[in-house]
């Protein structure tokens, strides 16, 4: 079971997931240009930006509560360039001071054990911790560039045009994208376009329509890109 809602932390999404109570469960987490702080059965960890689908094998009944930061926001909260966490899962204690993480883990554990709606309250604990960090974290000098890149790649603009509109060179744009997203603007564009295509397919749009609306050259191009980034077909993801 999976559910989510908009977070009180700007640009973030709070989500909950519980594995089936019996049998092994396998999940395919699609790349989305985001970073997450996750409470996973009593452990706090960080999921970095993925370049391809991350396959997770869950134990029966495993519980997760996560705070997903929008593209470019995670590095500000976590205090580390996104590229250093690309395709990685690391303990939160490896990024934040140990004492701070211990207090957060203890508070989360007490909430999970005592509250009648533990998942909801666990989410609030994560939100409060992220909001405190966001309040005191230094903002990148070119924070506006992050939004420009996201908007540009979603619109399908060439990288040269995005750089020119932002008033920077392509090399600087690429460096800032590595810091903010974990990869360059072309890879970010492929990932965001793939996610849009999957969303459209899951809503029942014909694959030819998905290809046209999401900006692929044709349906074959769509199929190649989805398999390259996720390891499975669009049909498998849409089911």
What does this protein look like?
This protein has 239 residues and is α+β, with helices and mostly antiparallel strands. The protein is built from ten helices and eight strands. It has helices at 74-78, 98-114, 118-136, 143-154, 159-166, 170-181, 185-202, 207-214, 219-230, 234-238; strands at residues 2-6, 12-18, 25-29, 35-40, 43-47, 54-58, 63-69, 89-91. The strands form two sheets. A six-stranded antiparallel sheet has the order 1-2-7-4-5-8. The chain has a two-stranded antiparallel sheet with strand order 3-6. β1 and β2 form a beta hairpin. The longest helix has 19 residues, at 118-136. The chain starts with a strand and ends with a helix.
Helix content: 40-55%
Uncertain residue ranges: none
Mean pLDDT, as a whole number? 90
End-to-end gap: 15 Å
Number of strands: 8
The run of helices and strands is: EEEEEEEHEHHHHHHHHH
Q: Helix- and strand-based class?
A: alpha+beta
The coarse overall form would be: globular
Number of continuous helical runs: 10
Spatial sequence of strands, sheet with the most strands: 1-2-7-4-5-8
In terms of DSSP E residues, the strand content is 15-25%
Biggest β-sheet: count, sense, barrel?
6 strands, antiparallel
Radius of gyration, taken over Cα atoms and rounded to an integer in Å: 19 Å
Short key terms for the protein model shown above:
239 residues; alpha+beta; 49% helix
Brief write-up:
The protein has about 240 residues and is of the alpha+beta class. It contains 10 helices and 8 strands.
């Amino acid at each position: 079971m999976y559910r989510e809602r908009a977070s009180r932390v700007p640009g973030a999404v709070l989500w909950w997931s519980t594995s089936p109570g019996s049998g092994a469960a396998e999940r395919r987490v699609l790349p989305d240009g985001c970073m997450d702080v996750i409470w996973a059965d009593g452990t706090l960890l960080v999921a970095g930006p993925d370049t391809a689908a991350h396959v997770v094998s869950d134990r029966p009944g495993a519980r997760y509560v996560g705070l997903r930061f929008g593209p470019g926001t995670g590095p500000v909260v976590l205090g580390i360039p996104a590229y250093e966490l690309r395709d990685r899962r690391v303990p939160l204690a490896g990024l934040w001071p140990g004492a701070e993480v211990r207090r957060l883990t203890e508070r989360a554990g007490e909430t999970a054990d005592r509250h009648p709606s533990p998942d909801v309250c666990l989410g609030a604990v994560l939100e409060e911790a992220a909001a405190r960090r966001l309040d005191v974290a230094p903002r990148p000098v070119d924070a506006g560039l992050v939004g420009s890149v996201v908007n540009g790649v979603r619109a399908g603009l060439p990288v040269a045009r995005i750089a020119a509109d932002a008033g920077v060179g392509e090399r600087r744009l690429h460096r800032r994208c590595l810091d903010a997203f974990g990869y360059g603007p072309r890879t970010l564009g492929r990932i965001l376009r793939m996610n849009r295509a999957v969303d459209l397919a899951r809503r029942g749009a014909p694959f030819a329509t998905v290809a046209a609306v999401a900006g692929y050259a044709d349906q074959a191009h769509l199929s190649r890109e989805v398999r390259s980034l996720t390891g499975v077909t669009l049909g498998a993801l849409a089911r």
